[in-house]
Amino acid sequence: MRMDRVAAECARRALYSSVCDSALTVKVEGVTFYVGASLGDIIFLEAELTKVGIKSMNINVVGFREDSSGKKEKICDGTFVFVSKYGDKTFPHGLKITKEQEK
Prior knowledge:
Thiol Ester Dehydrase, Chain A; 5-stranded antiparallel sheet; 5 strands
């Protein structure tokens, strides 16, 4: 699933400043599809870190399509929860986000 991969990339980037070496998807809090994409549409996915716990990270992913006329439209969104890992164990990541970043 591309949405999970994009969320994982966002989680990994967030961990660059941490000693943690990976993140694991533990939950998908729902994916909502609003409209379908058509053959030939270009699909874009954007991910954003929206909430952090001691070991957990919530990543919101939004999908868009662009049709052949250049019209862009939101087609889906979902929240993916990851835990940070160091070696083969979950580990506190030490990440902080501001209240303005939290959604």
